[in-house]
Amino acid sequence: MTAATRCPGCPSGMKGPGKYLCLGCWNTLPMAARRLLNRRDSRAYARLRQLHRQLDHGVPLAEIRITA
After folding, report:
1. Which terminus in the chain has less CB density within 10 A, N or C?
2. What is the pLDDT of residues 6-57, one digit of tens each?
């Protein structure tokens, strides 16, 4: 079993294995972004990279936009 790791969206949150963000950060994302990040297809990794790139650039969670 893999241990929890730090959430990239907040300084104190921990995310579970296989999760992109902690629950608090995940619920802050716009519904459209969550819907696209939940899709498991050939573009899933590209969408995850979009999320991480925006987090790295300081985009607030509520303003993150993910494209298909």
Report:
1. N
2. 999 998 899 999 899 999 999 999 999 999 999 999 999 999 999 999 999 9
The residue length of the chain stands at 68
3-class SS of residue 14? strand
| Residue appearing with tokens 């790139």 | 53
| Amino acid identity, position 16 | G
Number of CB atoms found within 10 A of residue 24's CB: 13
Please tell me the distance from the alpha carbon of residue 2 to that of residue 55, in angstroms, as a whole number. Answer: 24
> Which amino acid is it at 2?
T
* Whole-angstrom distance, CA of residue 54 vs CA of residue 29: 12
pTM for the whole structure: 0.88
